[in-house]
């Protein structure tokens, strides 16, 4: 009988401790089209047509050299990166100049991304430079020779 009571007590303590550690289930949010349709009082089909037309309209504005600003979301703009030299497969190569589309998010987006409970879709490891102690010293570094013990 006592073994059963101890087992029951251990089970109750385990459940009480683990109940605090469990995260509540996230609220089920509607998809983006439904959410926009609900907040703007438009039909879902109308919002879907608008989203379909948004991509080509932004591309047209960017190809004309304009910056596209979406209020509360951020801005898209074309940025030119000049030609530069880099290593490709261990060999020096010249990378030609190229245009890129840059997205600069609005401050509200950063606040939403860092809000409590926001879970990232992907986690990227940070880069950490590690010095190789076995590598040859650079030409501009001081010598590693031991100074002479004898002074004049």
Concise synopsis of the structure shown:
Helix content is 37%, strand content 19%.
Structural topology:
Blueprint: H1 2-21, H2 32-40, H3 44-63, E1 68-70, E2 74-81, E3 84-88, E4 91-95, E5 98-105, H4 107-113
Antiparallel strand pairs: 1-2, 2-5, 3-4
Helix pairs in contact: 2-3
Report what the structure shows.
The protein is an alpha+beta fold and 152 residues long. Among the domains are: 28-64; 67-116, HU Protein, Chain A. The protein is 37% helix and 19% strand. The protein is built from four helices and five strands; from the N terminus they run H-H-H-E-E-E-E-E-H. It has helices at 2-21, 32-40, 44-63, 107-113; strands at 68-70, 74-81, 84-88, 91-95, 98-105. The chain has a three-stranded antiparallel sheet with strand order 1-2-5. A two-stranded antiparallel ribbon has the order 3-4.
Features:
152 residues; alpha+beta; 3-stranded antiparallel β-sheet; two-stranded antiparallel ribbon; 4 helices; 19% strand
Distance separating the two termini: 91 Å
The strand order across the widest sheet is 1-2-5
Number of strands: 5
What is the typical, i.e. mean, pLDDT?
81
Structural class by helix and strand composition = alpha+beta
Q: CATH first level of the domain at 67-116: which class?
A: Few Secondary Structures
Query: In the CATH classification, which architecture of the domain at 67-116 applies?
Result: Irregular
How many helices does DSSP assign? Answer: 4
Helix content: 25-40%
The largest β sheet comes out as: 3 strands, antiparallel
Q: What's the Cα radius of gyration? A: 30 Å
Q: What are the segments in which pLDDT stays under 50 over at least 5 consecutive residues?
A: none
Shape: elongated
CATH topology of the domain at 67-116: HU Protein, Chain A
Oligomer: single chain
H/E series: HHHEEEEEH
Query: What is the H level of CATH, i.e. the homologous superfamily of the domain at 67-116?
Result: IHF-like DNA-binding proteins
Strand content: 15-25%
